[in-house]
UniProtKB/TrEMBL annotation:
Keyword list, A-Z: Iron, Metal-binding, Monooxygenase, Oxidoreductase
EC number: 1.14.16.-
Protein name as annotated: Aromatic amino acid hydroxylase
InterPro entries from the UniProt entry: ArAA_hydroxylase, ArAA_hydroxylase_sf, Aro-AA_hydroxylase_C_sf, Aromatic-AA_hydroxylase_C
Species the sequence originates in: Flagellimonas marina
Cofactor(s) it depends on: Fe(2+)
Matches recorded under CDD domains: arom_aa_hydroxylase
PROSITE patterns: BH4_AAA_HYDROXYL_2
Domain Biopterin-dependent aromatic amino acid hydroxylase family profile: 1-340
Amino acid sequence: MSYESNPILDKLPKHLKQFIKPQHYEAYSPIDQAVWRYVMRKNVDYLSRVAHSSYVDGLKKTGISIDHIPNMYGMNRILKEIGWAAVAVDGFIPPSAFMEFQAYNVLVIASDIRQLENIEYTPAPDIIHEGAGHAPIIANPEYAEYLRRFGEIGCKAISSAKDYELYHAVRHLSIIKEAAGTPQEEIDEAEKHIEHLQKNMGTPSEMALIRNLHWWTVEYGLIGTVENPKIYGAGLLSSIGESAWCMTDKVKKLPYSLEAAHTEFDITKPQPQLFVTPDFAFLSQVLEDFANTMALRKGGLSGVLKLINSKELGTIELSTGLQISGNFNKVMEHEGKPIYIQTKGPTALAYREKELVGHSIAQHPEGFGTPIGKLKGINIAIEDMGPRDLKAYKIYEGEQITLEFEGGVTVEGTIITGTRNLRGKIILVTFQDCTVTYNGEIIFKPEWGLYHMAVGQQVVSAFNGPADLNSFDLITHEITETTIKHKKSAERQQLEQYYLQVREFREGKNTTISRNKVFKALTENHPNDWLLPVELYELAKKGNDEAFQQEILEHLESIKQNNPKVGHLIDDGIELIDHSFTEVK
Protein backbone atom coordinates (compact mmCIF):
# COMPACT_ATOMS: atom_id res chain seq x y z
CA MET A 1 0.00 0.00 0.00
CA SER A 2 1.46 3.36 -1.06
CA TYR A 3 -0.34 5.40 1.61
CA GLU A 4 -1.18 5.19 5.29
CA SER A 5 -4.81 4.15 5.71
CA ASN A 6 -7.40 4.96 8.40
CA PRO A 7 -11.03 3.90 9.09
CA ILE A 8 -12.46 6.41 6.57
CA LEU A 9 -10.06 5.38 3.79
CA ASP A 10 -10.65 1.69 4.59
CA LYS A 11 -14.26 2.16 3.44
CA LEU A 12 -13.26 3.41 0.00
CA PRO A 13 -14.12 1.03 -2.85
CA LYS A 14 -11.19 -0.47 -4.76
CA HIS A 15 -11.82 1.52 -7.92
CA LEU A 16 -11.22 4.79 -6.04
CA LYS A 17 -8.07 3.51 -4.35
CA GLN A 18 -6.47 3.17 -7.80
CA PHE A 19 -6.16 6.97 -7.97
CA ILE A 20 -4.32 7.35 -4.65
CA LYS A 21 -0.59 7.94 -4.81
CA PRO A 22 2.08 8.50 -2.16
CA GLN A 23 2.72 12.13 -1.24
CA HIS A 24 6.57 11.87 -1.32
CA TYR A 25 6.96 14.68 1.18
CA GLU A 26 10.76 14.62 0.86
CA ALA A 27 10.42 15.66 -2.80
CA TYR A 28 9.23 19.17 -1.86
CA SER A 29 12.17 21.51 -2.42
CA PRO A 30 13.10 24.46 -0.18
CA ILE A 31 11.70 26.71 -2.95
CA ASP A 32 8.39 24.81 -2.79
CA GLN A 33 8.28 25.38 0.97
CA ALA A 34 8.99 29.09 0.44
CA VAL A 35 6.17 29.33 -2.12
CA TRP A 36 3.75 27.69 0.35
CA ARG A 37 4.86 30.04 3.15
CA TYR A 38 4.54 33.20 1.03
CA VAL A 39 1.05 32.29 -0.23
CA MET A 40 -0.18 31.21 3.19
CA ARG A 41 1.14 34.28 5.02
CA LYS A 42 -0.38 36.59 2.45
CA ASN A 43 -3.64 34.63 2.38
CA VAL A 44 -4.11 34.48 6.13
CA ASP A 45 -3.37 38.19 6.44
CA TYR A 46 -5.80 39.17 3.65
CA LEU A 47 -8.38 36.40 3.97
CA SER A 48 -8.88 37.02 7.68
CA ARG A 49 -10.65 40.18 6.49
CA VAL A 50 -12.54 38.92 3.41
CA ALA A 51 -13.08 35.15 3.88
CA HIS A 52 -15.99 33.51 5.68
CA SER A 53 -15.20 33.09 9.37
CA SER A 54 -15.13 29.29 8.90
CA TYR A 55 -11.89 29.62 6.92
CA VAL A 56 -9.67 31.05 9.65
CA ASP A 57 -11.35 28.82 12.27
CA GLY A 58 -10.83 25.84 9.95
CA LEU A 59 -7.13 26.55 9.53
CA LYS A 60 -6.76 26.12 13.29
CA LYS A 61 -9.04 23.04 13.44
CA THR A 62 -7.34 21.22 10.54
CA GLY A 63 -3.87 22.05 11.86
CA ILE A 64 -2.63 23.44 8.53
CA SER A 65 0.68 25.21 9.11
CA ILE A 66 1.54 28.55 7.57
CA ASP A 67 5.27 27.75 7.53
CA HIS A 68 5.29 24.18 6.17
CA ILE A 69 3.55 22.30 3.36
CA PRO A 70 1.11 19.97 5.14
CA ASN A 71 1.97 16.33 5.50
CA MET A 72 -1.00 14.22 4.40
CA TYR A 73 -0.71 11.87 7.35
CA GLY A 74 -0.65 14.74 9.82
CA MET A 75 -3.70 16.25 8.12
CA ASN A 76 -5.52 12.92 8.33
CA ARG A 77 -4.99 12.67 12.07
CA ILE A 78 -6.69 16.04 12.51
CA LEU A 79 -9.32 15.69 9.74
CA LYS A 80 -10.66 12.50 11.30
CA GLU A 81 -11.87 14.63 14.23
CA ILE A 82 -14.40 16.17 11.83
CA GLY A 83 -15.14 12.84 10.11
CA TRP A 84 -13.04 13.41 6.99
CA ALA A 85 -9.79 12.17 5.47
CA ALA A 86 -7.42 13.28 2.70
CA VAL A 87 -5.55 11.43 -0.05
CA ALA A 88 -2.87 12.45 -2.53
CA VAL A 89 -3.52 12.09 -6.28
CA ASP A 90 -1.65 13.00 -9.47
CA GLY A 91 -3.27 16.22 -10.72
CA PHE A 92 -6.77 16.15 -12.18
CA ILE A 93 -8.71 12.89 -11.88
CA PRO A 94 -12.01 12.15 -13.73
CA PRO A 95 -14.85 14.35 -12.39
CA SER A 96 -17.06 11.41 -11.39
CA ALA A 97 -14.21 9.86 -9.35
CA PHE A 98 -13.43 13.21 -7.73
CA MET A 99 -17.05 13.57 -6.64
CA GLU A 100 -17.30 9.97 -5.48
CA PHE A 101 -14.34 10.55 -3.13
CA GLN A 102 -16.33 13.46 -1.64
CA ALA A 103 -19.31 11.15 -1.12
CA TYR A 104 -17.06 9.07 1.16
CA ASN A 105 -15.92 12.19 3.09
CA VAL A 106 -12.50 12.08 1.48
CA LEU A 107 -10.73 15.21 0.27
CA VAL A 108 -8.69 14.66 -2.89
CA ILE A 109 -5.41 16.59 -2.76
CA ALA A 110 -3.11 17.00 -5.74
CA SER A 111 0.17 16.75 -3.88
CA ASP A 112 2.31 18.73 -6.35
CA ILE A 113 2.84 22.42 -5.70
CA ARG A 114 2.81 25.28 -8.21
CA GLN A 115 6.05 26.72 -9.53
CA LEU A 116 7.28 30.05 -8.20
CA GLU A 117 6.48 31.50 -11.66
CA ASN A 118 2.78 30.59 -11.14
CA ILE A 119 2.61 31.64 -7.49
CA GLU A 120 -0.56 33.71 -7.91
CA TYR A 121 -2.66 31.22 -9.87
CA THR A 122 -2.35 27.90 -11.65
CA PRO A 123 -5.00 25.92 -13.59
CA ALA A 124 -3.41 22.78 -12.14
CA PRO A 125 -4.83 21.43 -8.89
CA ASP A 126 -2.05 21.66 -6.31
CA ILE A 127 -1.56 21.32 -2.58
CA ILE A 128 -2.03 25.06 -2.05
CA HIS A 129 -5.40 24.91 -3.77
CA GLU A 130 -6.55 21.70 -2.10
CA GLY A 131 -4.82 21.87 1.29
CA ALA A 132 -5.11 25.60 1.94
CA GLY A 133 -8.36 26.10 0.03
CA HIS A 134 -10.63 23.08 0.49
CA ALA A 135 -9.49 21.59 3.80
CA PRO A 136 -10.08 24.52 6.21
CA ILE A 137 -13.62 25.26 5.07
CA ILE A 138 -14.86 21.66 5.56
CA ALA A 139 -14.48 22.22 9.31
CA ASN A 140 -17.88 23.95 8.95
CA PRO A 141 -20.44 21.09 9.47
CA GLU A 142 -23.13 22.51 7.16
CA TYR A 143 -20.63 23.03 4.36
CA ALA A 144 -19.03 19.61 4.92
CA GLU A 145 -22.45 17.96 4.54
CA TYR A 146 -23.06 19.94 1.33
CA LEU A 147 -19.73 18.70 -0.02
CA ARG A 148 -20.52 15.07 0.87
CA ARG A 149 -24.02 15.28 -0.60
CA PHE A 150 -22.68 16.99 -3.72
CA GLY A 151 -20.30 14.07 -4.22
CA GLU A 152 -23.08 11.55 -3.69
CA ILE A 153 -25.30 13.17 -6.33
CA GLY A 154 -22.50 14.33 -8.64
CA CYS A 155 -20.96 10.89 -9.13
CA LYS A 156 -24.33 9.68 -10.47
CA ALA A 157 -24.46 12.45 -13.13
CA ILE A 158 -24.33 11.13 -16.69
CA SER A 159 -21.43 12.35 -18.86
CA SER A 160 -20.98 12.69 -22.61
CA ALA A 161 -18.05 11.58 -24.73
CA LYS A 162 -17.12 15.28 -25.13
CA ASP A 163 -16.82 15.66 -21.35
CA TYR A 164 -14.03 13.08 -21.33
CA GLU A 165 -12.27 14.84 -24.20
CA LEU A 166 -12.41 18.14 -22.29
CA TYR A 167 -11.18 16.46 -19.09
CA HIS A 168 -8.09 15.09 -20.88
CA ALA A 169 -7.44 18.49 -22.54
CA VAL A 170 -7.62 20.33 -19.19
CA ARG A 171 -5.40 17.73 -17.54
CA HIS A 172 -2.87 18.12 -20.37
CA LEU A 173 -2.81 21.92 -20.01
CA SER A 174 -2.40 21.73 -16.23
CA ILE A 175 0.55 19.35 -16.64
CA ILE A 176 2.48 21.32 -19.27
CA LYS A 177 1.80 24.68 -17.61
CA GLU A 178 3.38 23.47 -14.37
CA ALA A 179 6.31 21.76 -16.13
CA ALA A 180 9.40 23.98 -16.07
CA GLY A 181 10.58 24.97 -19.55
CA THR A 182 7.40 24.24 -21.53
CA PRO A 183 7.48 26.49 -24.65
CA GLN A 184 4.82 29.22 -24.55
CA GLU A 185 3.56 28.17 -28.01
CA GLU A 186 2.71 24.72 -26.62
CA ILE A 187 0.75 26.27 -23.71
CA ASP A 188 -1.06 28.67 -26.11
CA GLU A 189 -1.98 25.75 -28.37
CA ALA A 190 -3.36 23.73 -25.42
CA GLU A 191 -5.42 26.73 -24.25
CA LYS A 192 -6.82 27.24 -27.77
CA HIS A 193 -7.75 23.55 -27.91
CA ILE A 194 -9.71 23.87 -24.63
CA GLU A 195 -11.38 27.03 -25.92
CA HIS A 196 -12.38 25.20 -29.11
CA LEU A 197 -13.78 22.23 -27.14
CA GLN A 198 -15.72 24.50 -24.78
CA LYS A 199 -17.35 26.27 -27.73
CA ASN A 200 -18.36 22.97 -29.37
CA MET A 201 -19.68 20.89 -26.46
CA GLY A 202 -23.23 20.73 -27.84
CA THR A 203 -26.08 20.24 -25.37
CA PRO A 204 -24.43 20.13 -21.94
CA SER A 205 -24.56 16.77 -20.16
CA GLU A 206 -25.62 16.35 -16.54
CA MET A 207 -21.95 16.12 -15.58
CA ALA A 208 -21.19 19.39 -17.40
CA LEU A 209 -24.07 21.13 -15.59
CA ILE A 210 -23.23 19.82 -12.13
CA ARG A 211 -19.56 20.64 -12.76
CA ASN A 212 -20.69 24.23 -13.32
CA LEU A 213 -22.46 24.16 -9.94
CA HIS A 214 -19.30 22.78 -8.34
CA TRP A 215 -17.21 25.54 -9.91
CA TRP A 216 -19.48 28.41 -8.82
CA THR A 217 -19.78 27.09 -5.25
CA VAL A 218 -16.99 24.79 -4.03
CA GLU A 219 -14.31 26.46 -6.19
CA TYR A 220 -15.43 30.05 -6.74
CA GLY A 221 -18.26 30.66 -4.29
CA LEU A 222 -19.02 33.80 -2.31
CA ILE A 223 -21.32 33.92 0.73
CA GLY A 224 -23.32 36.67 2.42
CA THR A 225 -24.94 39.49 0.48
CA VAL A 226 -24.25 40.73 -3.04
CA GLU A 227 -23.23 44.08 -1.51
CA ASN A 228 -20.97 42.57 1.15
CA PRO A 229 -19.85 39.05 0.18
CA LYS A 230 -17.23 36.86 1.86
CA ILE A 231 -15.08 34.19 0.18
CA TYR A 232 -15.53 30.46 0.76
CA GLY A 233 -14.61 28.89 -2.63
CA ALA A 234 -11.27 27.05 -2.61
CA GLY A 235 -10.17 28.48 -5.97
CA LEU A 236 -10.42 31.98 -4.51
CA LEU A 237 -9.03 31.03 -1.09
CA SER A 238 -5.90 29.62 -2.72
CA SER A 239 -5.31 32.32 -5.35
CA ILE A 240 -3.61 35.41 -3.94
CA GLY A 241 -4.32 37.22 -7.19
CA GLU A 242 -7.95 36.33 -7.68
CA SER A 243 -9.01 36.61 -4.03
CA ALA A 244 -8.21 40.34 -4.23
CA TRP A 245 -9.53 40.77 -7.79
CA CYS A 246 -12.88 39.14 -6.99
CA MET A 247 -13.63 41.73 -4.29
CA THR A 248 -13.46 44.63 -6.75
CA ASP A 249 -16.36 46.06 -8.77
CA LYS A 250 -14.76 44.59 -11.92
CA VAL A 251 -16.26 41.21 -10.99
CA LYS A 252 -20.05 41.09 -11.19
CA LYS A 253 -21.78 39.55 -8.12
CA LEU A 254 -25.01 37.62 -8.72
CA PRO A 255 -27.39 35.96 -6.23
CA TYR A 256 -26.75 32.18 -6.31
CA SER A 257 -29.47 30.14 -8.00
CA LEU A 258 -29.99 27.14 -10.24
CA GLU A 259 -28.97 29.44 -13.11
CA ALA A 260 -25.35 28.81 -12.07
CA ALA A 261 -25.65 25.30 -13.54
CA HIS A 262 -26.10 26.89 -16.97
CA THR A 263 -23.27 29.42 -16.55
CA GLU A 264 -20.08 28.12 -18.13
CA PHE A 265 -16.57 28.92 -16.91
CA ASP A 266 -13.12 29.19 -18.42
CA ILE A 267 -10.43 27.58 -16.27
CA THR A 268 -7.67 29.57 -18.02
CA LYS A 269 -8.98 33.07 -17.19
CA PRO A 270 -10.12 35.08 -14.13
CA GLN A 271 -13.89 34.83 -13.65
CA PRO A 272 -16.00 37.77 -14.93
CA GLN A 273 -18.85 37.06 -12.49
CA LEU A 274 -19.35 35.16 -9.25
CA PHE A 275 -22.40 33.87 -7.39
CA VAL A 276 -23.23 34.75 -3.78
CA THR A 277 -25.15 32.31 -1.57
CA PRO A 278 -26.90 33.74 1.52
CA ASP A 279 -25.67 30.80 3.66
CA PHE A 280 -24.32 27.26 3.34
CA ALA A 281 -27.76 25.67 3.83
CA PHE A 282 -29.00 27.40 0.66
CA LEU A 283 -26.32 25.56 -1.34
CA SER A 284 -27.94 22.25 -0.42
CA GLN A 285 -31.36 23.59 -1.41
CA VAL A 286 -30.16 24.48 -4.93
CA LEU A 287 -28.35 21.13 -5.18
CA GLU A 288 -31.61 19.28 -4.44
CA ASP A 289 -33.41 21.42 -7.05
CA PHE A 290 -30.75 20.40 -9.58
CA ALA A 291 -30.94 16.73 -8.58
CA ASN A 292 -34.68 16.86 -9.34
CA THR A 293 -33.80 17.62 -12.99
CA MET A 294 -31.41 14.65 -13.28
CA ALA A 295 -32.17 11.25 -14.79
CA LEU A 296 -31.28 9.90 -11.35
CA ARG A 297 -34.69 11.12 -10.17
CA LYS A 298 -36.63 11.51 -13.42
CA GLY A 299 -35.79 8.25 -15.19
CA GLY A 300 -38.02 7.81 -18.24
CA LEU A 301 -37.09 7.70 -21.91
CA SER A 302 -34.84 10.76 -21.61
CA GLY A 303 -32.82 9.01 -18.89
CA VAL A 304 -32.27 5.92 -21.02
CA LEU A 305 -31.26 8.08 -24.01
CA LYS A 306 -28.74 9.98 -21.86
CA LEU A 307 -27.11 6.67 -20.91
CA ILE A 308 -27.03 5.50 -24.54
CA ASN A 309 -25.42 8.79 -25.64
CA SER A 310 -22.83 8.64 -22.86
CA LYS A 311 -21.47 5.31 -24.18
CA GLU A 312 -20.37 4.61 -20.59
CA LEU A 313 -21.36 2.07 -17.97
CA GLY A 314 -24.64 3.11 -16.38
CA THR A 315 -27.70 1.82 -14.53
CA ILE A 316 -31.44 2.05 -14.97
CA GLU A 317 -33.81 1.25 -12.13
CA LEU A 318 -37.33 0.00 -12.75
CA SER A 319 -40.39 0.74 -10.63
CA THR A 320 -40.00 -2.65 -8.90
CA GLY A 321 -36.52 -1.66 -7.69
CA LEU A 322 -34.76 -4.00 -10.13
CA GLN A 323 -31.54 -2.38 -11.40
CA ILE A 324 -29.88 -3.17 -14.73
CA SER A 325 -26.22 -2.11 -15.10
CA GLY A 326 -24.31 -2.15 -18.37
CA ASN A 327 -23.63 -0.21 -21.56
CA PHE A 328 -27.04 0.70 -22.95
CA ASN A 329 -27.13 0.75 -26.74
CA LYS A 330 -30.78 0.51 -27.78
CA VAL A 331 -34.25 1.61 -26.66
CA MET A 332 -37.63 1.12 -28.32
CA GLU A 333 -40.27 3.66 -27.47
CA HIS A 334 -44.01 4.11 -27.65
CA GLU A 335 -45.90 7.32 -26.87
CA GLY A 336 -42.80 8.90 -25.30
CA LYS A 337 -42.06 5.96 -23.01
CA PRO A 338 -39.40 3.24 -23.22
CA ILE A 339 -40.95 -0.16 -23.98
CA TYR A 340 -37.79 -2.22 -24.52
CA ILE A 341 -34.21 -1.56 -23.46
CA GLN A 342 -31.05 -3.36 -24.53
CA THR A 343 -27.47 -3.39 -23.27
CA LYS A 344 -24.38 -4.56 -25.13
CA GLY A 345 -21.58 -6.48 -23.42
CA PRO A 346 -21.25 -7.45 -19.73
CA THR A 347 -24.42 -6.67 -17.76
CA ALA A 348 -25.43 -7.29 -14.15
CA LEU A 349 -28.79 -7.17 -12.36
CA ALA A 350 -29.21 -5.86 -8.83
CA TYR A 351 -31.80 -4.92 -6.24
CA ARG A 352 -31.11 -2.06 -3.81
CA GLU A 353 -27.48 -1.80 -4.96
CA LYS A 354 -26.85 -5.51 -4.30
CA GLU A 355 -26.26 -7.88 -7.19
CA LEU A 356 -28.92 -10.56 -7.66
CA VAL A 357 -27.56 -14.06 -7.15
CA GLY A 358 -27.15 -15.72 -10.55
CA HIS A 359 -27.25 -12.41 -12.47
CA SER A 360 -23.63 -11.26 -12.59
CA ILE A 361 -21.73 -10.30 -15.74
CA ALA A 362 -20.74 -13.98 -16.00
CA GLN A 363 -24.43 -14.82 -16.61
CA HIS A 364 -25.00 -11.86 -18.97
CA PRO A 365 -21.67 -11.42 -20.83
CA GLU A 366 -23.23 -10.43 -24.17
CA GLY A 367 -25.89 -8.03 -22.91
CA PHE A 368 -29.43 -7.96 -21.58
CA GLY A 369 -32.75 -6.91 -23.06
CA THR A 370 -36.21 -6.62 -21.53
CA PRO A 371 -39.64 -5.16 -22.17
CA ILE A 372 -40.89 -2.40 -19.85
CA GLY A 373 -44.46 -1.32 -19.25
CA LYS A 374 -47.92 -2.80 -18.99
CA LEU A 375 -49.51 -5.77 -20.70
CA LYS A 376 -51.91 -4.93 -23.50
CA GLY A 377 -55.57 -4.98 -22.46
CA ILE A 378 -54.85 -5.71 -18.77
CA ASN A 379 -55.35 -2.88 -16.27
CA ILE A 380 -53.19 -4.34 -13.55
CA ALA A 381 -49.39 -4.24 -14.06
CA ILE A 382 -47.40 -7.45 -13.46
CA GLU A 383 -45.54 -5.81 -10.56
CA ASP A 384 -48.86 -5.10 -8.83
CA MET A 385 -50.17 -8.63 -9.20
CA GLY A 386 -50.44 -10.78 -6.08
CA PRO A 387 -49.90 -14.58 -6.22
CA ARG A 388 -53.57 -15.23 -7.16
CA ASP A 389 -53.47 -12.62 -9.96
CA LEU A 390 -50.30 -14.11 -11.37
CA LYS A 391 -51.83 -17.58 -11.38
CA ALA A 392 -55.01 -16.27 -13.00
CA TYR A 393 -53.01 -14.66 -15.82
CA LYS A 394 -50.88 -17.85 -16.11
CA ILE A 395 -47.69 -16.08 -15.08
CA TYR A 396 -46.81 -19.22 -13.21
CA GLU A 397 -44.18 -21.96 -13.11
CA GLY A 398 -44.47 -24.45 -15.99
CA GLU A 399 -47.01 -22.38 -17.95
CA GLN A 400 -46.44 -21.78 -21.65
CA ILE A 401 -47.58 -18.22 -22.21
CA THR A 402 -47.66 -15.29 -24.59
CA LEU A 403 -47.31 -11.86 -22.99
CA GLU A 404 -48.20 -8.97 -25.27
CA PHE A 405 -47.03 -5.56 -24.05
CA GLU A 406 -48.37 -2.13 -24.94
CA GLY A 407 -46.26 -0.79 -27.80
CA GLY A 408 -45.74 -4.03 -29.72
CA VAL A 409 -43.31 -6.22 -27.74
CA THR A 410 -44.35 -9.88 -27.33
CA VAL A 411 -42.70 -12.48 -25.09
CA GLU A 412 -43.60 -16.11 -25.79
CA GLY A 413 -42.18 -19.09 -23.90
CA THR A 414 -42.40 -21.44 -20.92
CA ILE A 415 -42.01 -19.92 -17.46
CA ILE A 416 -39.42 -21.63 -15.26
CA THR A 417 -39.43 -19.39 -12.20
CA GLY A 418 -39.85 -15.91 -10.82
CA THR A 419 -37.59 -13.82 -8.59
CA ARG A 420 -39.18 -11.68 -5.86
CA ASN A 421 -37.95 -8.70 -3.91
CA LEU A 422 -37.98 -8.38 -0.13
CA ARG A 423 -41.54 -7.07 -0.21
CA GLY A 424 -42.71 -10.19 -2.05
CA LYS A 425 -43.21 -8.46 -5.41
CA ILE A 426 -42.08 -10.25 -8.52
CA ILE A 427 -39.14 -8.47 -10.20
CA LEU A 428 -37.88 -11.04 -12.71
CA VAL A 429 -39.49 -13.85 -14.72
CA THR A 430 -37.28 -16.54 -16.30
CA PHE A 431 -38.38 -18.36 -19.52
CA GLN A 432 -37.10 -21.26 -21.56
CA ASP A 433 -37.78 -21.84 -25.28
CA CYS A 434 -38.51 -18.12 -25.48
CA THR A 435 -39.06 -15.90 -28.49
CA VAL A 436 -39.27 -12.11 -28.12
CA THR A 437 -40.56 -10.01 -31.00
CA TYR A 438 -41.12 -6.32 -31.60
CA ASN A 439 -43.76 -5.57 -34.24
CA GLY A 440 -43.00 -8.93 -35.85
CA GLU A 441 -39.19 -8.59 -35.76
CA ILE A 442 -37.42 -11.28 -33.69
CA ILE A 443 -35.17 -9.78 -30.99
CA PHE A 444 -34.59 -12.92 -28.89
CA LYS A 445 -34.46 -16.54 -30.09
CA PRO A 446 -34.96 -19.80 -28.09
CA GLU A 447 -31.49 -21.10 -29.04
CA TRP A 448 -29.87 -18.15 -27.21
CA GLY A 449 -30.70 -19.83 -23.88
CA LEU A 450 -32.86 -18.78 -20.95
CA TYR A 451 -34.65 -15.42 -21.22
CA HIS A 452 -34.83 -13.29 -18.09
CA MET A 453 -37.61 -10.72 -18.31
CA ALA A 454 -37.35 -7.81 -15.93
CA VAL A 455 -40.63 -6.69 -14.37
CA GLY A 456 -41.35 -2.97 -14.20
CA GLN A 457 -43.94 -0.54 -15.48
CA GLN A 458 -41.48 2.28 -15.90
CA VAL A 459 -37.87 3.45 -15.64
CA VAL A 460 -37.77 5.49 -12.43
CA SER A 461 -34.04 6.26 -12.42
CA ALA A 462 -31.01 6.31 -14.71
CA PHE A 463 -27.52 7.13 -13.51
CA ASN A 464 -23.80 6.85 -14.16
CA GLY A 465 -21.94 3.75 -12.94
CA PRO A 466 -23.08 0.32 -11.73
CA ALA A 467 -25.71 -0.36 -9.06
CA ASP A 468 -23.38 -2.75 -7.22
CA LEU A 469 -19.74 -1.58 -7.34
CA ASN A 470 -18.59 -5.20 -7.01
CA SER A 471 -20.35 -6.32 -10.20
CA PHE A 472 -17.73 -4.92 -12.57
CA ASP A 473 -13.97 -4.58 -12.75
CA LEU A 474 -13.70 -0.82 -12.35
CA ILE A 475 -9.93 -0.74 -11.86
CA THR A 476 -9.35 0.18 -15.46
CA HIS A 477 -8.32 3.84 -15.27
CA GLU A 478 -5.30 4.55 -17.42
CA ILE A 479 -3.52 7.87 -16.91
CA THR A 480 -2.55 9.05 -20.38
CA GLU A 481 0.12 11.39 -19.04
CA THR A 482 1.55 12.14 -15.62
CA THR A 483 2.96 15.31 -14.13
CA ILE A 484 6.36 16.07 -15.64
CA LYS A 485 9.40 16.04 -13.35
CA HIS A 486 12.40 17.54 -15.12
CA LYS A 487 15.92 16.80 -13.91
CA LYS A 488 17.12 19.81 -11.94
CA SER A 489 20.01 21.81 -13.40
CA ALA A 490 23.11 22.57 -11.33
CA GLU A 491 21.96 26.21 -11.27
CA ARG A 492 18.57 25.22 -9.86
CA GLN A 493 20.14 22.95 -7.25
CA GLN A 494 22.37 25.84 -6.16
CA LEU A 495 19.36 28.16 -5.79
CA GLU A 496 17.54 25.52 -3.73
CA GLN A 497 20.59 25.29 -1.47
CA TYR A 498 20.40 29.05 -0.78
CA TYR A 499 16.71 28.73 0.07
CA LEU A 500 17.48 25.81 2.38
CA GLN A 501 20.19 27.77 4.23
CA VAL A 502 17.84 30.69 4.85
CA ARG A 503 15.09 28.35 5.95
CA GLU A 504 17.35 26.52 8.40
CA PHE A 505 18.58 29.82 9.82
CA ARG A 506 15.03 31.09 10.35
CA GLU A 507 14.01 27.84 12.05
CA GLY A 508 17.10 27.83 14.28
CA LYS A 509 18.51 24.63 12.76
CA ASN A 510 21.72 26.29 11.57
CA THR A 511 22.40 29.81 12.88
CA THR A 512 26.04 29.86 11.73
CA ILE A 513 25.03 30.70 8.15
CA SER A 514 25.97 34.20 7.00
CA ARG A 515 22.84 35.77 5.53
CA ASN A 516 24.96 38.50 3.90
CA LYS A 517 27.05 35.87 2.11
CA VAL A 518 23.92 34.08 0.90
CA PHE A 519 22.53 37.40 -0.35
CA LYS A 520 25.78 38.29 -2.15
CA ALA A 521 25.91 34.86 -3.82
CA LEU A 522 22.23 35.11 -4.74
CA THR A 523 22.57 38.53 -6.40
CA GLU A 524 25.59 37.31 -8.37
CA ASN A 525 24.26 33.93 -9.49
CA HIS A 526 20.46 34.42 -9.46
CA PRO A 527 19.86 38.17 -9.89
CA ASN A 528 16.20 37.69 -10.95
CA ASP A 529 15.03 35.63 -7.98
CA TRP A 530 12.73 37.80 -5.83
CA LEU A 531 11.26 35.49 -3.16
CA LEU A 532 14.48 34.67 -1.29
CA PRO A 533 15.49 38.36 -0.97
CA VAL A 534 12.04 38.96 0.56
CA GLU A 535 12.73 36.18 3.09
CA LEU A 536 16.18 37.67 3.80
CA TYR A 537 14.55 41.08 4.32
CA GLU A 538 12.34 39.50 6.99
CA LEU A 539 15.43 38.16 8.81
CA ALA A 540 17.21 41.53 8.49
CA LYS A 541 14.14 43.20 9.95
CA LYS A 542 14.06 40.69 12.79
CA GLY A 543 17.76 41.35 13.52
CA ASN A 544 17.30 45.17 13.33
CA ASP A 545 20.00 45.29 10.64
CA GLU A 546 18.92 48.46 8.85
CA ALA A 547 21.89 48.60 6.46
CA PHE A 548 21.16 45.05 5.28
CA GLN A 549 17.46 45.87 4.94
CA GLN A 550 18.31 48.85 2.73
CA GLU A 551 20.67 46.80 0.56
CA ILE A 552 17.96 44.16 0.00
CA LEU A 553 15.31 46.78 -0.80
CA GLU A 554 17.56 48.38 -3.41
CA HIS A 555 18.16 44.98 -5.03
CA LEU A 556 14.42 44.25 -5.05
CA GLU A 557 13.80 47.64 -6.67
CA SER A 558 16.11 46.69 -9.55
CA ILE A 559 14.26 43.35 -9.95
CA LYS A 560 10.95 45.25 -10.15
CA GLN A 561 12.34 47.48 -12.90
CA ASN A 562 13.60 44.49 -14.89
CA ASN A 563 10.46 42.40 -14.30
CA PRO A 564 7.44 44.63 -13.55
CA LYS A 565 5.16 41.55 -13.41
CA VAL A 566 6.53 40.56 -9.99
CA GLY A 567 6.51 44.11 -8.63
CA HIS A 568 3.25 43.76 -6.71
CA LEU A 569 4.35 40.39 -5.28
CA ILE A 570 7.52 41.98 -3.91
CA ASP A 571 5.61 44.99 -2.56
CA ASP A 572 3.01 42.73 -0.90
CA GLY A 573 5.73 40.59 0.69
CA ILE A 574 7.59 43.63 2.09
CA GLU A 575 4.38 45.28 3.28
CA LEU A 576 3.35 42.08 5.09
CA ILE A 577 6.71 41.89 6.88
CA ASP A 578 6.70 45.59 7.81
CA HIS A 579 3.12 45.30 9.05
CA SER A 580 3.85 42.21 11.18
CA PHE A 581 6.81 43.94 12.88
CA THR A 582 4.76 47.11 13.46
CA GLU A 583 2.07 44.97 15.13
CA VAL A 584 4.66 43.31 17.38
CA LYS A 585 5.93 46.71 18.52
